[in-house]
């Protein structure tokens, strides 16, 4: 049984015996906000003390209660004060937020060593200890709202007198903690991803830890902060939580060791039944209805709702997780996971992803130990009731159809549909699936992610286009793999010649791949010929699109001169890395890591400046990369610009037609039509395909694109 220390009332909130880590005369709580103007406060007048006592208020010592001019003692009732409290202006008015109205003042509460801003409304707070509270804050019916002497506010730091073992780590990407990182306020998915990699580089790992420790003071006794216009009501326990302005908390069960970033432009809200511990919540987030989150970071404008469980995970911006469970995961921006029976574990998912109902990814239930991993590029979509085995790795924009997959899968082919081959009993990959069968979803998602990027601080340049340097590299690799697999399927024939022959478009050649699935099953590649042609067309289209974009960025420059100047640098295709949704050349990232190890970079702020610098360079680098990609498949492509541009226009028309064609299938499906009395009722329920706003906009963009490319071709 724990011993209960007996201490004098005058020491409430402080250690009775001064610990060794404190200097003589120093209290455990010394670090108040330095922005407070102490000269604005004065001691209570005798008449004010009399009024306060008449209103059933008590104080350990009224000399420790300081107030501003404009303080109204009649608005403080039935409160108990301990330690030094400072109270701002209190006026005879009320505050209103949504349906909540509260009179300004302090009522029915126990207050220990707090600073109150102007016109606050505090009522029925059983314990409010060591907080600095902003202006026009409303707090109603809270059991405990306190800051301890060793508060860390969600950061993985250790205070003086504490042991290293109590440091908070986030175990990302692997259940056994082999890729763990230390969370800190301002940490980005890119930071976390960098730290999870290069685990064999002990010097680099040590530098990351040093950089994080430098971000924060190891001193004890920092007061908690509650920003202006924050509203807290009907909540159980809030301990060691910093809150920005305009935070809204209602009905939470327990909030402990958190930083909640919030502001007037991007308010963060936490709702009923939530239990949230050891985390950092960025601006504009929504957490409500029974969420459980432990050891986590939630990036800006993301949501947890309806009983979601997020543990040892980092969720990127503009993402939503509801109902389900996510463990040990690092997820880049724009992730959607809405279903109660989906499960994601020990994964690094690089954004623009969607988890369907019943999808089960990871855990040692389908591996031999708790050290398995899953890594997936952008646009990862595991479908209904998918069960994958660790360790698996997927290229960008892989869609996985319903089924149980018995072996590990490493699929380097982008834009693929992966499924079990019911005909032959093996694995089936439809190459270039999205462009042939579901162009509407691919194009709409690229538009949707950009349109729904709610970040007020876009310090990371997120890439949402499905054609970008990362997918260009994967397309080039896919072309080489298709040539090899066709060659092997021909028994050593010329795979490239076969794929380039239009006569083989309908050839029933069975193409098989190797090294995709770790089983004895065979992996069949469907639509290899069509995908090969589409991949080539995409490189022509992408290069022309980036040429046009570059010309529009430099309207005074000659398009031909821009092209020729960039071609001089187009020597070899670059390898790129997806850092938290921002694409950066791998070589430049390696240089940055060397600067970290050498001591040229000593703060995470410098790393973030590196991201910003690369974001400024990205448009020109993307153009160069697009030209590089086309040069890989046709070194003479730029010798005949009209042919290149015409092929790009033709590809644009193909993609636009695919958007409408794939959506129109929903209107032509007789099984869907069976749900309605006639076609007119179908249109009334789901909308007329001819009036689909996204399709119409895509057509308009295609017309404009064609006209601009024709003009560009004429200028060149």
From TrEMBL:
Superkingdom of the organism of origin: Bacteria
| Residue intervals of the DUF4954 domain | 41-484
Q: Which Pfam families match?
A: DUF4954
InterPro entries per the UniProt record, alphabetical: DUF4954
Protein name from the UniProt record: DUF4954 family protein
This protein's species is: Aquirufa esocilacus
């Amino acid at each position: 049984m724990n011993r209960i220390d007996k201490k004098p009332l005058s020491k409430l909130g402080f250690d009775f015996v001064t610990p060794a880590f404190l200097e003589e005369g120093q209290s455990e709580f010394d670090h108040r906000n330095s922005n407070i103007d102490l000269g604005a406060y004065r001691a209570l007048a005798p008449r004010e003390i009399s009024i306060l006592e008449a209103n059933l208020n008590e104080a350990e010592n009224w000399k420790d209660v300081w107030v501003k001019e404009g303080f109204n003692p009649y608005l403080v009732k039935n409160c108990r004060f301990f330690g030094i409290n400072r109270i701002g202006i209190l006026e005879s008015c009320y505050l209103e937020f949504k349906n909540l109205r509260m009179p300004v003042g302090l009522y029915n509460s126990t207050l220990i060593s707090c600073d109150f801003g102007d016109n606050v409304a505090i009522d029925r707070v059983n314990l409010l200890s060591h907080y600095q509270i902003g202006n026009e804050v409303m707090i109603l019916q809270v059991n405990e709202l306190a800051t301890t002497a060793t508060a860390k506010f969600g950061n993985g730091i250790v205070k003086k007198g504490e042991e290293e073992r109590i440091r908070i780590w986030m175990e990302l990407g692997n259940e056994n903690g082999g890729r763990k990182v230390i969370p800190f306020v301002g940490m980005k998915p890119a930071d976390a991803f960098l730290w999870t990699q290069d685990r064999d580089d002990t010097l680099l790992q040590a530098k990351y830890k040093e950089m994080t420790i430098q971000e924060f003071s190891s001193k004890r006794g920092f007061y908690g902060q509650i920003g202006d216009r924050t509203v807290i009501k009907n909540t159980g326990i809030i301990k060691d939580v910093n809150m920005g302005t305009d935070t809204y908390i209602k009905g939470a069960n327990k909030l402990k060791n958190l930083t909640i970033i919030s502001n007037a432009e991007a308010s963060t809200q936490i709702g009923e039944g939530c239990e949230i511990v050891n985390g950092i919540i960025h601006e504009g987030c929504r957490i409500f209805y029974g969420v459980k989150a432990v050891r986590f970071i939630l990036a800006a404008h993301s949501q947890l709702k309806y009983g979601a469980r997020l543990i040892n995970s980092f969720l990127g911006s503009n993402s939503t997780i509801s109902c389900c469970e996510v463990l040990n995961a690092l997820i880049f921006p724009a992730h959607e996971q809405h279903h109660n029976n989906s499960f994601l574990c020990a994964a690094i998912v690089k954004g623009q992803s969607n988890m369907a109902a019943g999808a089960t990814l990871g855990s040692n239930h389908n591996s031999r130990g708790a050290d398995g991993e899953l890594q997936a590029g952008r646009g990862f979509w595991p479908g209904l009731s998918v069960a994958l085995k660790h360790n698996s790795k997927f290229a960008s924009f892989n869609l996985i159809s319903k089924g149980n997959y018995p072996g590990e899968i490493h699929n380097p082919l982008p834009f693929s549909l992966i499924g079990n081959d019911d005909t032959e009993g093996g694995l089936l990959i439809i190459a270039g699936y999205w462009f042939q069968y579901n162009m509407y979803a691919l194009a709409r998602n690229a538009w949707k992610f950009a349109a729904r990027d709610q970040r007020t601080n876009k310090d990371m340049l997120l890439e949402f286009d499905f054609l970008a340097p990362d997918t260009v590299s994967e397309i080039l690799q896919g072309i080489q793999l298709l040539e090899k697999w066709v060659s092997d399927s021909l028994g050593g024939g010329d795979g490239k010649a076969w794929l380039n022959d239009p006569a083989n478009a309908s050839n029933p050649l069975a193409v098989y791949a190797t090294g995709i699935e770790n089983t004895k099953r065979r992996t069949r590649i469907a639509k290899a010929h069509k995908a090969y042609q589409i991949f080539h067309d995409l490189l022509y289209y992408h290069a022309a699109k980036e040429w046009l974009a570059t010309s529009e960025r430099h309207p005074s420059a000659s398009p031909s001169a821009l092209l020729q100047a960039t071609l001089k640098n187009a020597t070899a295709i670059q390898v790129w890395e997806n850092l938290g949704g921002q694409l950066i050349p791998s070589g430049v990232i390696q240089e940055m890591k060397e600067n970290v190890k050498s001591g040229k970079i000593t703060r995470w702020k410098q790393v973030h400046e590196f991201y910003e610098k690369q974001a400024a360079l990205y448009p020109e680098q993307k153009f160069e990369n697009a030209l590089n990609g086309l040069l890989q498949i046709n070194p003479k492509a730029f010798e005949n610009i009209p042919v290149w541009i015409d092929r790009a226009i033709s590809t644009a028309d193909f993609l636009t037609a695919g958007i409408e064609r794939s959506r129109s299938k929903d209107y032509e499906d007789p099984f869907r039509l069976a749900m309605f009395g006639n076609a007119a009722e179908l249109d009334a329920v789901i909308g007329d395909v001819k009036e689909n706003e996204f399709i119409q906009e895509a057509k308009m963009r295609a017309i404009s694109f064609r006209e601009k490319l024709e003009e560009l071709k004429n200028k060149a």
